[in-house]
Amino acid sequence: MGLLTNLKDSVSRVTDRLFADDEPKRIGIYGPPNAGKTTLANRIARDWTGDAVGPESHIPHETRRARRKEDVTIERNGKTVTIDIVDTPGVTTKVDYKEFLDHDMEKGDAVKRSREATEGVAEAMHWLREDVDGVVYVLDSATDPFTQVNTMLIGIIESQDLPVLIFANKVDLDDADVKRISDAFPQHETVPLSALEGDNMNEVYEKIAEYFG
Amino acid sequence: MPEATTPNDDGVRIDLISGARMEGLTSMEKIRLILDSVRDGDIVVLEAGLSPEEESKLIEVTMTEISPDDFSGIEIESYPSNRQPDQGLVGRLLGKEEAKKLTVIGPANQIETLHKDEDLISALVSRK
Predict the structure, then answer these.
(1) Residues of A in contact with B64 (CB under 8 A)
(2) B27 in contact with A at a CB cutoff of 8 Å?
(3) pTM as predicted
(4) Rounded to a whole number, what is the distance in Å from the CA of A146 to chain B's nearest CA?
(5) A6 touching B, CB under 8 A?
């Protein structure tokens, strides 16, 4: 039964992709909170469409709803790829409103933010299972990548057979360590960048065109 | 864990659940079993862990149950997956299942991971 179900799912996924070649691929930008997902989404959207995707902030869970920027056409080395960028809330297994009180927030606002954050994480997980065709996984190069959320999410992405690129963001920080990230996930290609400063965006676009084109 | 009893409130209860026991449950039954225990302040240790899809659903259901001053979520730790990216359809057809992995789950406000690497998880468990 399991074998047949797996076979059916895999064949269905392959045929869906074959027949959906003309449609823009939905590329989900995933990662833990504060990795710079929205900064990256905004950088890509501004570079190729002139518009931003959403507001950026150093306070965790600024993005509490998945936001889609449609028809972003990227051209690199003669390859053109049109994608929908889906900027998703940072994934976590816990949300405590008290963390927001440290950011000068009133209790009412902190509780509201935490409630919205939990809904956003649940929504992000749903998108990952149902509605994305590929994943850009964003990590902060200055923090330990060896966390359970990263391990679980990469495992979930692999189990869905989705193409994935790992982006080691924030290389402009003094304590950035890209090797630590590539060592943590050696089975996937890691691309260093600073979405904030625009560092290494040429390689970012080359890899997006190569992986999702 | 209906057949077990809680002797007193001084300690932290740990449920070590065998792979055989989990095998007969549906995904939602597994998630309910875990979250009911964790919401009672217990630590759950799964001999065989969860599948990636079940982990995804566990995160989703956990998020829907978080409420201020009551439940702030879960701490979960397991060893990294050994699944190779090229396994795909052929690998699964040949029966190469993902390696089972010991998994520890507890209330976020009671369990703190001190250290984790490929083959060691060290955690600090506190009472409520």
Answers:
(1) 118, 122
(2) no
(3) 0.85
(4) 7
(5) yes
CB A40 within 8 A of CB A200: no
Q: Would you list the domain boundaries of chain A?
A: 25-212
Q: How many domains does chain B have?
A: 1
Q: Which CATH number belongs to the domain containing residue B100 in this structure?
A: 3.30.110
pLDDT at A24 over 50: yes
From A90-99, B5-14, B93-102, B110-119, the region with the lowest mean pLDDT:
B93-102
| B71 contact residues in A (CB cutoff 8 A) | none
Give the closest-approach CA distance of A18 to chain B in angstroms: 16
Residue B81 has what pLDDT?
Answer: 57
Closest approach of B84 to chain A, Cα-based (Å):
7
Phi/psi at A202 (5° precision): -60, -45
Q: Chain B contact for A5, CB < 8 A?
A: no
Q: Is residue B72, in this structure, part of any structural domain at all? A: yes
Radius of gyration from C-alpha coordinates of chain A: 17
Report if residue B74 sits inside a domain: yes
B47 touches chain A (CB under 8 A): no
Which one is the CATH code of A25-212: 3.40.50.1000, 3.40.605.10, 3.40.50.1110, 3.40.50.300?
3.40.50.300
* Least confident residue range of A65-74, A151-160, B58-67, B114-123: B114-123
Is B61 a member of any domain?
A: yes
Are residues A151 and B92, on separate chains, in Cβ contact within 8 Å? no
A148 and B76 within 8 Å at the Cβ level: the answer is: yes
Domain assignment present for B70:
yes
pLDDT of amino acid A51? 86
pLDDT for A122-177, tens place per residue? 999 999 999 999 999 999 999 999 899 999 999 999 999 999 999 999 999 999 99
DSSP B14-49: EEEE-HHHHHTS-HHHHHHHHHHHHHTT-EEEESS-
The CB-side HSE value for B65 (13 A sphere, CA atoms) comes to 19
ipTM field = 0.83
Contact A94/B83, CB-based, under 8 Å? no
Q: Identify the three-state secondary structure at position A54.
A: coil
- The boundaries of the domain holding residue B45 are 14-80+90-125
